[in-house]
Design a protein that fits this description.
Number of strands: 0
Mean pLDDT: 79
Structural class: mainly alpha
Number of helices: 8
Low-confidence stretches: none
Strand content: under 5%
Order of helices and strands: HHHHHHHH
Distance between the termini: 72 Å
Shape: extended
Largest sheet: none
Radius of gyration: 26 Å
Length: 183
């Protein structure tokens, strides 16, 4: 059955709805879920909101791509992707655990400690404007420190592969090779 071009255009504005209108239920569900998790994550970390327009644009143009070239319906994150995510988690559990600890600490601070400090600042006589400015800039400060840390680690950290290559070259350089032209 031929789908209405106008309705396809209208549904394309809602991530996943255009795919579902065309019968790609798994693909549409994947996009809706991804977009909703993006909104939830952006509520916690506002800088992550930059990913929402990317998901929206992908969904919008994917709707029209599916009109022109039908494909098999499937989830966006296939088994290969899930396996690579599991591998990444198993290789670097410290980084993921550290990120979850930081996220949980921030949520606890935002929920319980921030209101107490806000009222304490008023009792002590600190202008609430200064406190609010400091509080609003804490995520920027933490994010900046994390970016600087990883920048230093990338720029000045030792690359294990690079040092192994140098050792291999040193071993190779020490050996003498003769080339026999008679062969």
């Amino acid at each position: 059955m031929k789908k209405s071009s106008f309705l396809t255009f209208c549904f394309a504005f809602i991530p996943g709805a255009g795919q579902m209108y065309q019968g790609y239920m798994k693909r549409g569900l994947s996009l809706i879920t991804l977009f909703c998790f993006g909104i939830m994550f952006a509520a916690i970390l506002p800088y992550s909101a930059i990913l929402l327009p990317i998901v929206w644009m992908y969904s919008f143009f994917d709707t029209f791509n599916l009109c022109n070239s039908p494909q098999m319906d499937g989830y966006l994150l296939q088994n290969e992707w899930m396996e690579s995510i599991k591998d990444a988690v198993s290789r670097k559990p410290v980084w993921i655990g550290g990120g979850l600890i930081l996220l949980g600490a921030w949520i606890l601070f935002d929920t319980f400690i921030h209101p107490l400090l806000y009222h304490l600042a008023a009792i002590v006589g600190i202008d609430r404007w200064y406190y609010i400015e400091l509080y609003n800039n804490i995520p920027k400060m933490v994010f900046s420190v994390i970016i600087i840390y990883f920048g230093f680690k990338l720029a000045f950290g030792k690359n294990k592969k690079h040092t192994e290559d140098i050792q291999d070259f040193e071993e190779f350089k020490g050996e003498k090779f003769y080339h026999d032209d008679n062969q």
